[in-house]
Amino acid sequence: xxDAVQEAVDAMDAxxxxxxxxxKPVGPAPKRRKASNGDAESTATGWDYNCxxxxxxxxxxxxxxxxxxxxxxxxxxxxxxxxxxxxxxxxVQRFALECGGGGMSLLDQEKFFHVLDAWDxxxxxxxxxxxxxxxxxxxxxxxxxxxxxxxxxxxxxxxDEGWMKCTMVEGGESFxxxxxxxxxxxxxxxxxxDNVKLWSGGDRPAPPSNKREDPMDGDAFRLxxxxxIRDNDEDSFVLGLHAFSDASRxxxxxxxxxxxxxEVGDRARGYAVATSCASSTASFGxxxxx
Length: 290
Known about the structure:
The protein is of the alpha+beta class. It is 34% helix and 14% strand. The two termini are 64 Å apart.
């Protein structure tokens, strides 16, 4: 304990030695007198101590940081501040600058302008319907009513799309999973598509290839495609589903593939192949989209 105290005192003394200087006499220096032992007697009257704030300022002035300063920004040439000069416009400005805590991005600001442009009924080409001249209060009585209406439309869309949820247990740990039927979604997309490519080669299976431009390129998928057509008929095709996720695990199968047949239309018979991403932490069985 004594050693620690002594080290602290020595450190303080070192700081004092660096910051003090001999006090200069106000008048002329007195003549040196000799002590009884013949040595010159000290004429020092004490010490002057620096002011800490002055020393800090002198330190940073010596660094000349202020000489290198520049303005934070430069106004654009056509800068015209102060155009949000009404109560309504200031509300718009405050919302755009404070929304989400950090304000809107430049892209969101532009989208917000187009919303307001349409709300003011000044957007070119906008349709005129039964609600064209109605205000917000004509439909929603309060902020709560507005939020409930948004939630109702979201819930309705989720239900129509057939989204489902499930709590799955893997290794004693529970995971909440949100999913859809991948096969149903794929068939729905195929029916709604303008152009559908049923074979890797356009109108027939392409030969094996080592290219990896798409998840289904390469030997494995194309050899499977040829085998399915060989075992059935030329109207068969393979629907490849590349499923991957870093957040959910459906099984510990290690990413196995499986093949399942399903009737599509009058002639073609579809076969779906589900694969899992090799670099992913998840593996999936056929029939789910995450």
